[in-house]
Amino acid sequence: MDIFERIAKDSGGPLGQYRDKAFGYYMFPKLEGELGPHMRFQGEEVLCWSLNNYLGLANHPEIRKVDGEAAARWGLAYPMGSRMLTGHTSLHERLERELADFEKKEDAFLFNFGYQGIVSTIDALVSRHDVIVYDNECHACLLDGIRLHIGSKYKYRHNNIKHCEQILARACKEAEANGGGVLLITEGVYGMTGALGILDQIVALKKQYKFRILIDDAHGFGVMGPHGRGTSEHFGVMDDIDLYIGAYAKSMAIIGGFVAGPRAIINYLRYNLRSQIYAKALPMPIVEGCLKRLEIIRGEEGDRLRKQLWLITRSLQEGLRKRGFDIGVAEACVTPVFLKGNMAQATNILIDLRKNYHIFCSVITYPVVPEGILMYRIIPTAAHSVEDVEYTLNAFAEVREKLEKGVYDSDTILNMSIGQ
Fold it and tell me: In the chain, which residues have pLDDT < 70?
């Protein structure tokens, strides 16, 4: 069969099967206006809980000033070419030095995009004789990197240290027999549930087993720990994490990422990361913008913003728990709200939240979560207020009451009206 004919007959996959009804509302929605807690959706103002703008830096006045001046000074093209050929600059080097120093590592290397950089890092690190051990709830970027590995790979049940040790023991035995090593991959913060990776417990296994640890701390960098150095700082295990990967897209609110670790290993990656060797270097305005963002994260302003972020996070999570909501094991900022219902109910709740309560958040349903469970994902930021939290808590309490009364029961999508 012709490739295009096959695709035309396909349902669209797990997500694409909903494209006709979902486009523009549930998927690919257009949020407009200044980035922040209050934006516009379909012409109406909404209280937005869907941006990973943890520290509110997207519209921080100092950041906007530096971004604008750098764009005017350099344009968006400079430097042209990949870092290896013609795209290398002193500012790229400076950002790497400052990131390494911040993470208390010997060296660091920049990624153009966090996703691609992570895939390439895993691909470059392991040989066919090496074994990968990973948490079964790792992010798609980690899974895609792991899929490239032609050697053995074993997953352990999410944050289950007993199962992790069992798998690790097996992996170490196999690696030793084949003359390879073991790479254990986990996340610092799991971005769907707000759960923390059990880094302290995994690190403790180094006393018994020989392996290296790589963590993806996209949701922890800049946020977790006393100084924002990440989840490894939060657990006090920075020295025991062999490779630390941070992303700019969350706390820094810009494109890119980095990997930090021993100088010899970072230098090896510098010459072997295909996603960087064959891609244009980060444009200079982004590099300058990242330097300014890191300066803020490391300083008093960063401390203030983290304090505000955690005030909002704790107010939200404690408020939900006091009202009897199930938010799982959320410890980081990402806050899931679990309800029981079906796909139609999930859709009707989302319509009600957006149209009538003017609250914009994302909904996650089966197969990402078990059938019969609905998950509404709320992302607090330093730019939100306690009043925003209180309004949202009251709205969710009303939504739950409506759900229990059957207001959202329908096989078809309801046309929710104000005051229903």
Answer: 367, 411-420
Cβ pair 217, 223 in contact under 8 A: no
Residue with tokens 């309800």: 339
Instruction: Give 61-298's CATH code, choosing from 3.40.50.150, 3.40.50.300, 3.40.50.11900, 3.40.640.10.
Output: 3.40.640.10
- Find the distance separating the first CA and the last CA of the chain, reported in whole Å: 50
Cis ω for the linkage preceding 380 (within 30 of 0): no
| Alpha-carbon distances, residue 93 vs 87, 115, 261, 282 (angstroms) | 11, 21, 15, 12
Point out which residues pair with 185 in neighbouring strands.
Answer: 134, 214
Q: What DSSP element (H or E) covers 300?
A: helix 300-322
Identify the CATH class of 3-54+301-405.
alpha beta
Spatial separation of the C-alpha atoms in residues 85 and 80, rounded to whole Å: 9
SS percent in the chain: helix, strand, coil, step 5: 45, 15, 40
Report CA Rg, the chain.
Answer: 22
* Residue 340 three-state SS: strand
Please tell me the predicted confidence (pLDDT) of residue 411. Answer: 59
Element (H, E) at 41: strand 38-41
Q: What is the pLDDT of residue 23?
A: 84
